[in-house]
Amino acid sequence: MRNEKKTEESLRGIMAREITGNPHAGAIIEAFRPLLLARARLLANEKWPAVTLTGFDPTRFGAGIPLSRQAQLFFAADPWEDMTEALTSAIGEGFPLISRDMGQIAGAVRGGDLDMFSYFGAPVDAGRDGRLVAAWAEGLSISAPVLDFLLRQLSRVVLEKRLPEAAALIGEREWRRGYCPVCGEFPSIALIEEKITRRWLHCSGCGHEWIFSRVICPYCEREAQQGMDFFFVEDRPRETAFSCDQCRRYLVTLKGVSELAERDLDITAMSLAHLDVIMQEKGFSPMTDSPWHVARA
Length: 297
Ligand SMILES: [Zn+2]
Ligand SMILES: [Zn+2]
Fold this sequence. Notes:
- By secondary structure, the chain is α/β, with parallel strands linked by helices.
- The protein is about 45% helix and about 10% strand.
- α4 runs antiparallel to α5.
């Protein structure tokens, strides 16, 4: 697995490099910078409880049921208040238009009026309660999509923290699905290595990366005998978007990448956001909503 942890310092270096290589993505990366750095700091927080994941069933996993629908990955002892403080302040810094909303949420959690765990701690098979989000947003007089954006960021930090435990459970078991074995989301970006030409799919929901066939569409699982359609802008052949004519989805894909360069696929996806614009103009939809699609809306 390519789930190596990144320090704040290495993230700063990666962001600087990506902005130099793709200056047009500077504004997006700058807006997300406080959030990405806060995430790295939170992952290094000392208050995380040691947890044991239970409920994993290799048979159900083999049938395509992701870990998040078998084992509880969120715990009451997780540092919910620290996470809310840090993420609301980072999001407010990067996105001044919603900083007031972030302040409202932080205040409600601080004052004990909002318990984030009550949303995330629901039984794994129940799914997330959208009505709770709507009710919270109404109670705080903020927009539901803005609250949802924060909840997704909280979820990402906790799930990324759990990746080592998740990996230990999953082990070497095969996963031939286009959605994430840990959290069930579809990938936000793919990477094809230079020498071995394996395709890695990256999940922005939890940060997990897994290997997937290069000749099957991750979204609808159609197999293409003639190979896949890859769109790219002239003179930048490594920066591509895979597209599928059957499901009309696309997946931004970085090709021919050497294994040596340190990179962060969330940041790479931001630096290639111009491909999102082009593919959506061509009538294709992303496989998952990346945070900057949401933030833009
Ligand atoms: Zn995931
Ligand atoms: Zn497809």
